[in-house]
Amino acid sequence: MLVKLFESIESETVDFAISELSYYLKHVFGAEAIVAKTKEEADLVLDIKETRANDTIAIRLENGKGHIVANSKVALLIGVYRLLNAFGVVFTRPGRKNEYLPSLSEADWQKASITIEETASYKHRGVCIEGADSYENIADFLDWLPKIRMNAFFVQFENPYSFLKRWYEHEFNPYAEKEPFSNDIAQEMSDRLDAELTKRGLVHHRVGHGWTGEVLGYSSKYGWESGLTLPEEKKAFAAELDGKRELYDTAPILTSLCFSNPEVGDKMCQLIVDYAKNRPDVDYLHVWLSDARNNICECPDCQKDIPADQYVRILNQLDEALTAEGLDTKICFLLYHELLFAPQKETIKNPDRYTMMFAPITRTFEMSYADVDYEHGIPAPKDYVRNQMVLPNSLEENLSYLFAWQKIFKGDSFVYDYPLGRAHYGDLGYMKISKVIYRDIAYLYHLGLNGYISCQELRSGFPHNFPNFVMGQMLWNKEEAYEDLKAVYFGALYGKNWQAVVTYLEKLSDYSSCDYFNAIGDRQDADLAAKYAISSQLAFHFINTLEENIAVTTGLQKEAWRQLAYHRDYVVKLAHALYLMASGQHLEGQIYWRDVLDYIRNHEADFQENLDVYRVIEVAKNYAGFTL
Predict the structure, then answer these.
(1) Do 70 and 184 share a structural domain?
(2) 98, 119, 140 — which closes off a domain?
(3) What letter would DSSP give residue 262?
(4) DSSP alpha helix (H) spans, 392-497
(5) β-pair partners for 44
């Protein structure tokens, strides 16, 4: 069978979409595809008609002929994958080997009658890099994003040096040998990743934290580097705390600035303008302040304003500087730490330049935005008290800050949320966090937010990647039914006995806690201890189901069951350690945690793509109460 494909415009993304469709036509239908010389000769025409609306696709296939039309480059690629979904293809995880491809025939293609016209529910549908990652981890994740209908990727800092370094130097895993790594290697990998991002037409977000360090002379590429000393000539730019001007906790990225000093604003704006001029490929440039709280300048002039007023002044100055240079770069500004408190004096003068990003980093994930009592439960925002910030865990208090900002900024906005950044490690089945993501995204429309970027580990697939799958599907169509998503995803991943797996995973989620692992709530909790004891036993007794199914599955599904077996041992060990911690037996809990450490370190190579060993250890020691 021969299928002729025609691209109506020249574009790297269109070329890639053609190559992707050709690959899947061969592997699903056994069809050879070529590019036709004219539209009239083609069986299937791919076309882009660009608009500023949310990503939109139109697909028609009748008797083996038709078209895929989209309003953006990434939407065209999404359209290709959306057509494949209609034939039963499911992209369960990053990487070709994790794709469920049904075996169909030429007749299946020829007799199909498919008409799809869809517009994404939300404009912003992306992921921001966290954790420890190899080049291949990031490249595979970029490839997966449009396959699950997402359209954006956010590279924190100047390049992903920090995240690559953690992997290649195998931080927190003494069993692994360090691999060659350097600034040059990181930059070369970063350049290749940017090319992969561009090839797919993904919306490109970049930088975020780091501008405060740049003003002080430190590159943002090094992320959270510490152990440094601020030169005397830079001290006038740094925030004054307790009468001193130094690096906060010896880390440039954590250090706030003296924003009443006009040189600070001038220097920061010039740095950002220069960056925007040199990186026209960046669609959204994130301009955030320091990544720490209670470090706001206490000098007399700074004390005249709250941080958000100083921030908005900088943003307005930046807009003027970008406009003067003829740059239309979009700027994302951040509601985070002290910047949750809305400005009292200033307003953003050119809202078209800016996208507001609400980042409730310490929120609970034991409930959804949809659960809030909006009529009676939202408190008045607290008054700002300098350097006495206590971050809120409740959704209600977090939302009170968002609503205050929305009164003064009516422009584009999205939530920058963290379900797969820390909290997911506490959900032993990954099903509770999936349902919260589902319900959160369905409700964003009511909050006046036009999308979602997940700040997360890319290797968050242990034991499955359903949370990200749900995220992508819901951001594309907020009316999707949760039960339908479960059937599609788990049916592809585990085969005919998928419902037994889901029942087991949902019970693990019921008997564990996102919040406890994320330092929310009392460390000693008898009810929670009892739940962890049950989850450990649930995992222990799942062995018979595993053995029965591993023996009768093949390929993708066999590997998924095999990983579930590894996950079973992990849960038995981790849940018991958490049971001991929650029941007040801290010494015994630490001893059993050593067994968990040994287990995941020794087996890291087997399941590297799905469990971020660096990050689970970091979160365990910084939040869950375990020691390294």
Answers:
(1) no
(2) 119
(3) H
(4) 395-406, 431-443, 466-476, 482-494
(5) 5, 66
Among candidates 94, 137, 293, which has minimal Cα distance to 608? Answer: 137
Residues 89 and 102 in one domain: yes
Cβ atoms < 10 Å from Cβ of 345: 12
* Alpha-carbon dihedral angle through residues 489, 131, 436, 404, given to the nearest 10 degrees: -140
CATH code at position 17? 3.30.379.10
- The per-residue pLDDT for range 371-420, each reduced to its tens digit, is 999 999 999 989 999 999 999 999 999 999 999 999 999 999 999 999 99
pTM of the predicted model over 0.90: yes
Q: Which domain holds residue 207?
A: 124-493
Same domain, yes or no: 115 and 136 = no
Per residue in 126-166, pLDDT (tens digit) is 999 999 999 999 999 999 999 999 999 999 999 999 999 99
**Residue 82 falls inside a structural domain:** yes
**Has residue 556 been placed in a domain?**
no
Name the 3-class secondary structure at 154: strand
Domain end point (choices 57, 89, 119): 119
Q: Does a structural domain hold residue 525? A: no
369 and 425, same structural domain? yes
pLDDT score recorded for residue 263: 96
List pLDDT tens digits, range 408-464.
Answer: 999 999 999 999 999 999 999 999 999 999 999 999 999 999 999 999 999 999 999
Task: Report yes or no: 167 and 137 within 8 Å, Cβ to Cβ.
Answer: yes
As a whole number of angstroms, the distance between CA 201 and CA 255 comes to 35
Would you tell me how many other CB atoms lie within 10 Å of the CB of residue 155? 22
Mean pLDDT of 456-482: 98
Q: Which contiguous run of DSSP H or E holds residue 357?
A: strand 354-358
- On whether the CB atoms of residues 485 and 437 are closer than 8 A, the answer is no
